[in-house]
Write a structure and sequence with these properties.
The complex is a heterodimer.
Chain A lengths: L1 H7 L2 E5 L3 H13 L4 E5 L2 H11 L3 E4 L2 E2 L2 E2 H11 L4 E5 L4 H9 L4 E4 L4 H15 L6 E3 L4 E3 L4 E4 L2 E4 L2 H12 L4 E3 H9 L7 H15 L9 E4 L3 E4 L5
Parallel strand pairs in A: 1-2, 1-3, 3-6, 6-7
Antiparallel strand pairs in A: 4-5, 8-9, 9-10, 10-11, 12-14, 13-14
Chain B lengths: L2 H35 L5 H11 L1 E3 L2 E3 L2 H10 L2 E6 L5 E4 L13 H9 L1 E2 L2 E8 L2 E6 L15 H5 L1 H40 L15 H54 L6 H31 L8 E4 H14 L6 E5 L9 E4 L1 H17 L5 E9 L3 E8 L6 H9 L17 H12 L3 E6 L5 E8 L5
Parallel strand pairs in B: 9-11
Antiparallel strand pairs in B: 1-2, 3-4, 3-7, 5-6, 6-7, 8-10, 11-12, 12-14, 13-14
Helix pairs in contact in B: 1-6, 6-7, 7-8, 8-12, 9-10, 10-12
Classes of the chains: A alpha/beta, B alpha+beta.
């Protein structure tokens, strides 16, 4: 629960011109435990509230009565470098690409399921504020990202740079399959073709460090031909 | 513009054939005229015959009567010059008075080659002297210095051929120069006509021999441009209307879905009411997907969807779709299996990644939609000589041959311009077809080896053969 508490204490700025939607999203976030929600109905109010409250994340609509969300993102990012999630009715690929190009962390198109919004908000917060949360508990070990080591049976086992990159990518998507290609890209950069065998070798070494029995992994599971999933224990 | 060189070749061919035919015809005509105008007997032969016929008798030389008549009919006179003293020893009665009776050797040499006092003369030899026939003035022209270098005669055939070829070359050059201007005038007309079907705006200079034709092509282009503009305007308005409506629907739909989700999770409500709320959420999500599909389909149809193609590894793209589907709340009734050969790790294609993902997602969703009882969906990437093949198959209820034919051929209601009552497939498959078409690929719908439905996307390989 330590991680949850830590993340749910973050200040989140919601910007949308639809009062009903603002109320609903506020309720969804509050029901899930988020304590500091700041709401703004337009561009001007969002800028003023951001200056006053220094939010740690923003969820913004693209279409605002006195401006657009893309401009708002630029201004918010100038004032403070915190993650931004677009929540909008504009579902065209062009808009998504523009949002991501401007530095958005995620882009959700309406209509959306409350669970999906919660998952994405949490994933963004975890990704953005992970350094302050060093210990990740697995079935038979813990990962200390701050020290780049695994703690198993009171032993501190150091992680190599590649193992650290791979585990970080897996942890950012904990509970979800990460493709072979995404892992290769995380470890070897933009042109990851041909590293599949190296990836398998690194995964085997990671398992030796985090698993009780590397031949029968329970925390780092293989999905044949697709990728791997890191299963994190709830605290 | 392949037709212009072809046209030139044809013109030149016709010209060469014409030249050869003309040359042959000239030879024949010349032969005929010469044959018709040449005297029946050549004067040299006549002279020799006269010499042979001249007889010596008691009263001196005499010529038979018939030979004399022949000479008279030709208007010719004759003399016989004695070998010993070069004097005329016999003559015809009609000998002009100015003709000498005594000749020196140089006179004989001269008359043999040419004339005596303007009368063309021809000689015939006899042992005792020389027979000379004199024809009327201006009846024959004689070449006074008939001699040719033997080398020149030996090379005459070669020189004749060279001259003929030179003549042909000169004719060809004159012809080409004369025609170049014509072809230059034709070229813009041909380019304009070829460009008309592409829909580009055309303007040809309305000058020269084809100015009227150029003007007509320009008018045609203007009419086509105007029609295209009006059509594009109408299509843009329709696509914008669909985009606007879908945008306006999304926010109220969010309220429906969110409240529905909260009610579905509200344990104070009865099971029946929670199920109803869950159904509202499900239908709300379905409407959300439908407006997304409608929007994308209309943009693809009216070429308003930007397509950003980049070289991509098809395996990575399709694998990402499969993983995203499994990572989402994937219904437990369905299994998604990655069926790509493990040794195939790279298959390069030039695609808009987001659109290809959308196409594969739609095919997976298609299998889900048509198999409510659940099924296993097999996704694979294969590579053949020219194509990358993306297969989405299932072991579900499949489709009959007639249904497959309808899916292949029956137009969707969005594109149909008739009032046909034929049942048509959903938007999902239409979008797949549009995306595949935008990538110069093809979609094949068939029966699966797993027993159900199979869709195969063929996309051209990029940068590898």
């Amino acid at each position: 629960m330590m991680e949850d508490d830590y993340l749910k204490n973050k200040r989140i700025l919601l910007v949308d011109d639809e009062q009903e939607l603002l109320d609903m999203v506020t309720t969804i976030l509050k029901d899930d435990g988020y304590r500091h929600i700041i709401v703004a109905k337009n561009f001007r109010q969002a800028i003023a509230l951001a200056k006053e409250h220094q939010p740690q994340m923003a969820v913004i609509d693209v279409m605002l009565p006195d401006g657009n969300g893309f401009e708002l993102l630029k201004q918010l990012k100038n004032d403070g470098d915190y993650p931004v999630l677009f929540l909008t009715a504009r579902g065209e690929d062009e808009d998504k690409l523009k949002g991501f190009a401007l530095g958005a962390d995620d882009y959700m198109v309406k209509p959306f399921l409350p669970q999906e919004l919660l998952f994405r908000v949490k994933a963004i917060l975890r990704r953005s504020y992970k350094s302050e949360n060093p210990l990740v508990k697995l079935k038979h070990s813990e990962i200390d990202f701050a020290r780049a080591e695994v703690i198993k049976d009171d032993c501190h086992i150091p992680l190599t740079a590649k193992e650290y990159e791979l585990l970080s990518a897996l942890y950012r998507n904990a509970g979800r399959i990460v493709t072979i290609d995404a892992l290769c890209e995380a470890a070897w950069g933009d042109n990851p073709f041909g590293y599949e065998n190296s990836l398998m070798a690194h995964i085997r070494r990671i398992r030796e460090k985090i698993e009780q029995n590397p031949s029968q992994p329970v925390s780092l599971v293989t999905f044949k031909g697709l990728g791997y999933k890191l299963i994190v224990e709830e605290r | 513009m392949k037709s212009i060189p072809k046209l030139i070749r044809r013109f030149v061919g016709i010209l060469l054939l014409s030249c050869i035919a003309l040359f042959g015809l000239n030879l024949v005509i010349l032969g005929l005229i010469t044959a018709s105008q040449t005297p029946s007997r050549h004067p040299w032969i006549t002279a020799q015959e006269m010499a042979d016929s001249l007889q010596i008798g008691e009263n001196g030389y005499c010529l038979p009567e018939n030979e004399l008549i022949q000479l008279q009919s030709a208007g010719a006179w004759a003399i016989f010059i004695d070998n010993v003293n070069h004097q005329v020893v016999w003559q015809t009665d009609n000998l002009p008075v100015q003709i000498p009776r005594q000749y020196t050797l140089s006179d004989i040499a001269s008359l043999t080659r040419g004339y005596i006092d303007g009368y063309p003369t021809f000689t015939g030899e006899k042992e005792t002297g020389l027979m000379v026939l004199g024809y009327p003035k201006d009846s024959f022209w004689k070449n006074m210095q008939p001699s040719w270098d033997y080398q020149a005669i030996a090379e005459l055939p070669k020189n004749m051929i060279l001259i003929a070829l030179l003549n042909l070359l000169v004719i060809l050059l004159i012809y080409l120069i004369a025609n170049t201007k014509l072809l230059h005038s034709v070229k813009p007309i041909v380019v304009g006509i070829q460009a008309l079907p592409t829909g580009e705006a055309i303007h040809i200079r309305e000058t020269g021999v084809f100015s009227e034709l150029a003007a007509n092509i320009n008018r045609t282009s203007e009419i086509l441009q105007s029609q295209n503009y009006r059509l594009h305007k109408k299509e843009t308005a329709r696509a914008n209307w669909i985009a606007g409506v879908s945008h306006d629907i999304r926010t109220p739909l969010s309220t429906v879905v969110i409240y529905g989700s909260q009610l579905a999770a509200d344990m104070t409500l009865s099971e029946t009411n929670r199920q109803k709320a869950a159904a509202v959420v499900k239908q709300g999500e379905r409407m959300g997907k439908l407006i997304n599909d409608l929007n994308l389909a209309s943009k693809l149809e009216y070429n308003m969807q930007p397509i950003h193609k980049q070289p991509k590894n098809a395996i990575a793209v399709v694998r990402q779709v499969v993983v995203e589907t499994i990572n989402s709340d994937f219904d437990k009734r369905y299994f998604l299996e990655w069926a790509t050969d493990e040794y195939l790790t790279f298959c390069s294609i030039n695609v808009d990644e987001n659109l290809l993902k959308r196409a594969v997602m739609n095919l997976i969703q298609n299998s889900i939609n048509h198999n409510e009882m659940g099924c296993t969906i097999y996704v694979a990437v294969q590579k053949n000589d020219d194509d990358c093949v993306i297969l989405v198959e299932d072991d579900g209820i499949g489709a009959s041959d007639r249904q497959i034919e309808q899916m292949e051929k029956a137009p969707h209601y969005m594109l149909c311009d008739t009032n046909t009552e034929e049942q048509r497939h959903g938007l999902g498959l239409l979008i797949v077809k549009q995306i595949v078409a935008a990538h110069e690929g093809r979609l094949v719908i068939t029966h699966s080896v797993y027993g159900g439905f199979a869709a195969k996307i063929f996309l051209p390989l990029y940068g590898e053969k």
